[in-house]
């Protein structure tokens, strides 16, 4: 009978967890064999344990026998190095990762150790592993934390972050396991595509990627391509235009669309601007430049909000990555918009740049022959993981059943009434001594709420993009008796909240009170983000509770489902709404937002597939130029007289390198020009839809012939440079011939597009279609 109940339970679990839940029976069947090895391995010395792990490197295949061995060895190594004995569910996660799944493990269930054991397992198969995370802090923390385990298993490990030099990066990537933020690893790929000497490459060929917070990285981050830019010259901010635009009023001088993505001048606004700028005509050919400056300044003024989209810190505009709630280090908006925001905030303009290359998360992951991942919320995006990455989800049950209480949403008519209710809830719970974690939508909201709590005599600790460097210490203490912590986006914070604080001193006292109470100040645009916030409570069977407050005037509803049904009544005194129709409207708004984000992802992928194919072709040619003497052979054929002349003045290796640098420069320059051309095409492609042409087909029709011109043009320009470059006592002067590479590089935070684009029209149609359903 118990066996029958177990089988029925497994079937029920599979039914509940669909879509995308892989069968775990195979892995569960191996757990007894892993347990049987525990006593035997416990008798080995550290050296003997390392030697036994090393024997796995000699195995020709890696099947169930080897899965059992690495899990048993990993459990023993963790017990010795960390004083942590891996639970069976962690070993299920390890086996799921080693067989190429995205494993779903709840917050606090030990994903970090499961991922480390899987990375070691891949390394012991002779494969180079990159463990990608959502931020640099977690990359370093996890690599250092797990290093003693790797050491006992005889596996080398390191990490990359923005502080490392090129030589330090090369050394880090030379280890068998390298941790790094997905953006950092991606930008190293882009930087490697610009080198002119093989010895300057930092990344060897990739083999395995294990993606931490896989849904955030593979789904949320995938909407934002990684873009590398190089300095061209110093930008000039148009302070005159910024000062004029600052005085414009919404509804009178300009309008915005319901999505808050586009802004435009009214007739009255255009008249005011023209007069303020000296009586020019913005819509005459002579005013075209000023019109462009006005439009971008208006976008900065009307659509980008300080402390929501960016911070001003240390005299610089610093962008906030919305999906992480953190400052996006070394990132900018495309130049015109960046300069406009700098002018708006009256700070010095940064260098102007040109886009050198870009890569999507899909393309980055496609470089790895094997990909696996782990997260607490994978099932919700199982179809996307299958569609874009061909990955299946394996749901790992918790070690201890979750007993957290998830309350229904508390809905209010207005944000102000909601805020008063949140303050009252915090006061009531705080008086009992229970720790409270409040999840807000952005920096501005977190600071506004913190200020109100302080005035109300409820001191709190704030975690947002201003102080994300201290995040580990703040989160670690969020479970202390009486603690109130206000945080922006919790996804990827990576630190467990232990009841009683980091030392667990008051654990029992806090547990008896009901554990950590989580409050969401609004529903997020994704149900996964809601789940990640809730998941901070109820860790490893702890007691806890979670509740979201919402309003029918929250940004989520206004942007995605503003047509609220009539007849929904609120309590006259509190503003609270108990009508089920209000909850349905909020759920509907969230589904619309999720649909829009999915369509953005699909459109990004549809357009970039062709670009990635073209890039792959050109990279093969670039790699041949980089690693062989092909450039010298081509220029010797095309300009034999000049080649012989230079051969008398330069040694053979130097001449080969000169030819290589010339051809690589023109290849990189033409690829950058091609990307700019494709960007222009995409910005105007939606006009093709008006002419009843398919925008994607039209994009392909224009992009393919242009690409085929690149290689012949590289050779043509290279011959011209080769023949015209001057040769002095110090050799050939490529700089004087125009072969100059950027003195610095940075990255752009592009999102889908700061302005109207080809698929923006599609998204508006998607929203309207979803609203009709």
From TrEMBL:
Bilayer topology annotation: Peripheral membrane protein
CC annotations in GO: cell envelope Sec protein transport complex; cytosol; plasma membrane
The Helicase ATP-binding domain, residue ranges: 92-250
Pfam families named in the record: P-loop_SecA, SecA_DEAD, SecA_PP_bind, SecA_SW
SUPFAM superfamilies tied to this protein: Helical scaffold and wing domains of SecA, P-loop containing nucleoside triphosphate hydrolases, Pre-protein crosslinking domain of SecA
Domain Helicase C-terminal: 414-581
InterPro entries membership: Helicase_ATP-bd, Helicase_C-like, P-loop_NTPase, SecA, SecA_Actinobact-type, SecA_CS, SecA_DEAD, SecA_motor_DEAD
Protein's name in the database: Protein translocase subunit SecA
Location(s), subcellular: Cell membrane; Cytoplasm; Membrane
Swiss-Prot/TrEMBL catalytic activity: ATP + H2O + cellular proteinSide 1 = ADP + phosphate + cellular proteinSide 2
EC class (word): translocase
Record organism: Amycolatopsis sacchari
Subunit note: Monomer and homodimer. Part of the essential Sec protein translocation apparatus which comprises SecA, SecYEG and auxiliary proteins SecDF. Other proteins may also be involved.
Family statement: Belongs to the SecA family.
Role: Part of the Sec protein translocase complex. Interacts with the SecYEG preprotein conducting channel. Has a central role in coupling the hydrolysis of ATP to the transfer of proteins into and across the cell membrane, serving as an ATP-driven molecular motor driving the stepwise translocation of polypeptide chains across the membrane.
Biological process annotations from GO: intracellular protein transmembrane transport; protein import; protein targeting; protein transport by the Sec complex
């Amino acid at each position: 009978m118990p066996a029958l109940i177990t089988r029925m339970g497994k079937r029920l679990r599979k039914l509940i967890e669909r879509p995308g839940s892989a069968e775990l029976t195979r892995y569960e069947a191996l757990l007894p064999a892993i347990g049987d090895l525990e006593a035997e391995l416990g008798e080995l010395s550290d050296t003997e344990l390392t030697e036994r792990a090393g024997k796995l490197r000699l195995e020709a295949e890696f099947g169930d026998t080897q899965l059992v061995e690495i899990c048993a060895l990993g459990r023993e190594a963790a017990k010795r190095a960390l004083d942590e004995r891996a639970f069976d569910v962690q070993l299920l996660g390890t086996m799921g990762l080693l067989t190429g799944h995205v494993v779903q493990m709840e917050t606090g269930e030990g994903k970090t150790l499961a991922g480390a054991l899987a990375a070691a397992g891949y390394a012991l198969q002779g494969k180079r592993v990159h463990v990608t995370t959502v931020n640099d802090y977690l990359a370093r923390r996890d690599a250092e934390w797990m290093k003693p385990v790797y050491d006992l298993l005889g596996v080398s490990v390191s990490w990359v972050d923005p502080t490392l030099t090129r030589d330090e990066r090369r050394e880090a990537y030379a280890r068998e396991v390298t941790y790094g933020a997905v953006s950092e690893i991606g930008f190293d790929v882009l930087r490697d595509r610009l080198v002119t000497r093989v010895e300057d490459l930092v990344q060897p060929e990739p083999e395995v990627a294990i993606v931490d917070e896989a849904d955030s990285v593979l789904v949320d981050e995938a909407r934002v391509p990684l873009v590398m830019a190089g300095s061209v010259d110093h930008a000039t901010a148009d302070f005159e235009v910024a000062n004029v635009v600052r005085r414009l009023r919404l509804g009178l001088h300009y309008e915005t669309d319901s999505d808050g993505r586009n802004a435009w001048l009214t007739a009255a606004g255009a008249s005011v601007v023209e007069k303020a700028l000296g009586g020019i005509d913005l819509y005459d050919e002579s005013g075209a430049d000023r019109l462009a400056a006005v439009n971008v300044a208006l976008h900065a003024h009307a659509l980008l909000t300080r402390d929501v989209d960016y911070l001003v810190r240390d005299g610089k505009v610093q962008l906030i990555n919305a999906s992480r709630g953190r400052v996006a280090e070394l990132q900018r908006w495309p130049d015109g918009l960046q300069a406009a925001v700098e002018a708006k905030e009256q700070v010095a303009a940064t260098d102007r740049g040109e886009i050198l290359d870009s890569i999507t998360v899909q393309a980055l992951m496609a470089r790895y022959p094997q990909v696996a991942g782990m997260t607490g919320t994978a099932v919700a995006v199982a179809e996307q993981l299958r569609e874009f990455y061909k990955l299946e989800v394996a749901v790992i049950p918790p070690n201890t059943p979750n007993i957290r209480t998830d309350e229904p949403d508390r809905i209010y008519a207005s944000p102000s009434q909601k805020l008063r209710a949140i303050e009252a809830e915090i006061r009531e719970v705080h008086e009992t001594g229970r720790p409270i974690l409040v999840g807000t939508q952005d920096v501005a909201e977190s600071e506004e709420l913190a200020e109100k709590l302080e005035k109300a005599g409820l001191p709190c600790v704030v975690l947002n993009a201003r102080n994300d460097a201290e995040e580990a210490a703040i989160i670690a203490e969020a479970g202390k008796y009486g603690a109130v912590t206000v945080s922006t986006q919790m996804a990827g914070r990576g630190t467990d909240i232990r009841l009683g604080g980091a030392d667990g001193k008051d654990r029992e006292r806090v547990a008896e009170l009901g554990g950590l109470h989580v409050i969401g100040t609004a529903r997020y645009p994704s149900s996964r983000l809601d789940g990640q916030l809730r998941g901070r409570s109820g860790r490893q069977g702890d007691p806890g509770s979670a509740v979201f407050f919402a309003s029918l005037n929250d940004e989520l509803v206004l942007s995605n489902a503003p047509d609220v049904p009539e007849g929904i009544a609120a309590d006259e005194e509190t503003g609270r709404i108990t009508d089920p129709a209000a909850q349905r409207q909020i759920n509907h708004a969230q589904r619309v937002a999720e649909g829009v984000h999915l369509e953005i992802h699909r459109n990004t992928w549809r357009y970039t597939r062709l670009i990635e194919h073209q890039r792959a072709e050109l990279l093969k040619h670039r790699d041949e130029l980089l690693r062989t003497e092909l450039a010298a052979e081509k220029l010797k054929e095309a300009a034999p007289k000049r080649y012989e002349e230079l051969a008398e003045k330069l040694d053979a290796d130097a001449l080969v390198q000169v030819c290589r640098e010339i051809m690589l420069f023109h290849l990189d320059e033409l690829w950058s020009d091609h990307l700019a051309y494709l960007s222009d095409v995409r910005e105007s492609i939606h006009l093709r839809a008006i002419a009843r042409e398919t925008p994607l087909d039209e994009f392909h029709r224009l992009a393919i012939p242009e690409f085929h011109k690149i290689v012949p043009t590289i050779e043509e320009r290279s011959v011209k440079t080769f023949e015209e470059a001057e040769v002095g006592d110090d050799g050939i002067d490529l700089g004087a011939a125009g072969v100059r590479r950027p003195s610095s590089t940075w990255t752009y935070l592009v999102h889908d597009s700061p302005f109207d684009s080809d698929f923006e029209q599609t998204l508006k149609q998607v929203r309207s279609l979803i609203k009709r359903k």
